[in-house]
Amino acid sequence: MKNLKRLIMLFCLFGVSYGLQIPQTSRYDKKITYAVFNAHDVFKISAENGYVTVIEFGKDERVVNVSTGFNEGWELIDRGNLLFIKPKAYTTKYIQNENPEEQNAISEIIVDPTPNQWKTNLIVTTNLNMYVFELTLNSKQKIYKLSFTYPQKELENIQKLQAELQKQIEEDKLDTSLNRVSIPRNWDFYMKVNKGSEDITPNFAYDDGVFTYLGFDNTKTFPAVFAYELGKESILNTHIKIT
User: Fold this and answer.
1) Where are the alpha helices (DSSP H) in 124-207?
2) Distance from C-alpha of 47 to C-alpha of 143, rounded to nearest angstrom
3) SS3 153
4) For each successive 10 residues of the chain (243 residues), what is the average pLDDT?
5) What is the CA angle 117-121-123, rounded to 5?
6) Whole-prediction pTM value?
7) Residues in CB range of 237: below 8 A, 6 or more apart
8) CA 79 from chain center: how many Å?
9) Dihedral angle, C-alpha 147, 153, 159, 162, nearest 10 °
10) How far apart are CA 85 and CA 51, in angstroms?
């Protein structure tokens, strides 16, 4: 019974983590907000009639497409990685007289934004991500600016830089080793040159006790290097040094 209760509690916590995400407010002004991007979250935008809200996406993102469920009530303008959102009134027509024996009189009325009628969703697609928003009218919680952060992407970039740095360090170590121990110790090598292989034949060969060196002039083609031992061939790791 205790295990069942624990399972139910964990399930409830898991469900809450994927609910509507309310952006975190700045400590300086609650109308400036921030949110961590998660493709599985819906982000809430609270606006007010007469005010504009701007959403700031990543610096390397560009807005490709925007779509809302209530086009008449919201003005959407994108500029690069910015999206400006503003609630707006719209004009509609209605029939004043519905008597079939008389000519109907059609009038226009302006519908101003109201919290109950203006709530809708917004889908934004950039060149890198897709975002889902809920648009609402709320004068007490209105947002002037929402900026996204991308810690997962930043972590991946750091890991990529670390891998590139480690690779460069290993290459530098190899270059240092080659330059440090390149004094010839053994020139006792012989070559058997097959017919037609003159253009890949080394000009000289020696080893320094650590590496074996094959020298070619600039008129020749570098061949692939194999080791032949006990009747079997195996390809060797090589490094080219230009002198």
Assistant:
1) 151-180
2) 6
3) helix
4) 42 45 88 93 95 96 96 96 96 69 71 92 97 95 94 82 81 67 70 82 81 82 79 78 70
5) 150
6) 0.57
7) none
8) 19
9) -50
10) 9
- Dihedral of CA 174/175/181/187: which sign? positive
How far CA 37 is from CA of 64, 78, 177, 208, 235, in Å, comes to: 17, 19, 46, 56, 47
Q: What is the greatest pairwise CA distance in the chain?
A: 118
Query: Among all chains, which residue has been given the structure tokens 């009747």?
Result: 231
Token pair for residue 160? Answer: 């990529």
Burial of 202 (0-12, 13-18, 19+ CB in 10 A): middle
Question: How far is the C-alpha of 120 from the C-alpha of 132, rounded, in Å?
Answer: 11
- Nearest one of 199, 189, 187, 204 to 243, comparing CA atoms: 204
- Rg, the chain, Cα only: 35
The pLDDT value recorded for residue 205 is 84
224, two tokens: 């692939």
Q: What's the length of the chain?
A: 243
Token pair, residue 53, equals: 């809200």
What pLDDT is attached to residue 3? 46
Strands 145-149 and 32-36: parallel
Q: Write down the residue that tokens 């959407």 correspond to.
A: 76
Measure the CA dihedral 55/56/60/64, to 10°.
Answer: 10
Q: How many CB atoms lie within 10 A of CB 228?
A: 8
End-to-end CA distance of the chain: 77
| 3-class secondary-structure state, position 82 | strand
